[in-house]
Amino acid sequence: MKKTAKTKVKAKVKAKAKAKPDTKKSNAQLIIGALLSGKTMRSRDISDMVLKDSGRLIKVQDVASMLSRISNGKNCDLGYFIERKQVGNGFVYHMVKEALKLSEEQAYDLTLKTGKGRYTLDKALKEFSGLDKHVKGGAKPKPKLTSKVKSRAAKPKVAKPAPRKPAKAAKPAPKPVAKKVAKKAPAPVKKPVPAPAKKPAPAPAPAPAPAPAPEPAMKSLTDKDIDKLASIVARKIVEMGGFTISLS
Questions:
Q1: How many CA atoms lie within 13 A of 232 on its CB side?
Q2: Does residue 6 have a pLDDT over 70?
Q3: Which residue of 64, 65, 132, 245 could cross-link 43, Cys pair, CB 3.0 to 4.6 Å?
Q4: Of the spans 153-167, 169-183, 220-234, which averages the highest pLDDT?
Q5: 211 lies in some domain
Q6: Is residue 224 part of a domain?
Q7: How confident is the model at residue 223 (pLDDT cuts 50, 70, 90)?
């Protein structure tokens, strides 16, 4: 029977798995070594390359977990130089060309936060031009602080004045003892005398009636007036049929 392409691949994987794996390097170092090849790869591609080159089998999910950590510049400095792009349902990873000059050990040191003698980002930016454009904000290597040379001449010691003893605080005056005063019996409470009821004020007197108007004064009669009245009276008497005057 002819061997298919799948069976050939499986046979190669089994043969490589039988080889002695590299136990000196960590999984992170092997994954970084695959990225330094300059190829654009998925997590499965990196897993296959590590198995081919070192004989160590790293699960695809472990490779993906490691890549998500080291490709983030917030987690480690190497993340500035690993490009991550989504393709379909997954991601592909690629090391920028300026970082391909780094050795595997240098690139691995950039994933560490601490460590004596480790390769730092400042050194990488100094030694490899073009890396600074991939760092956020265009970070530049920090200038080294020049150490000040201490003068050998001994500085004259200035005698310090002897510390003064604090003055003793004056003792507080004794508090006066309050004399006990005999309490006096309370004075009897006088009952309030009710005030006499006020009499109502008398009603005001009615205003006096106005005085009658004075009668008009009689005019004095002249002779003409008397004659007129006499004629009027005589006419009335005639109209009434006369009258008799009895003298008794």
A1: 6
A2: no
A3: 64
A4: 220-234
A5: no
A6: no
A7: confident
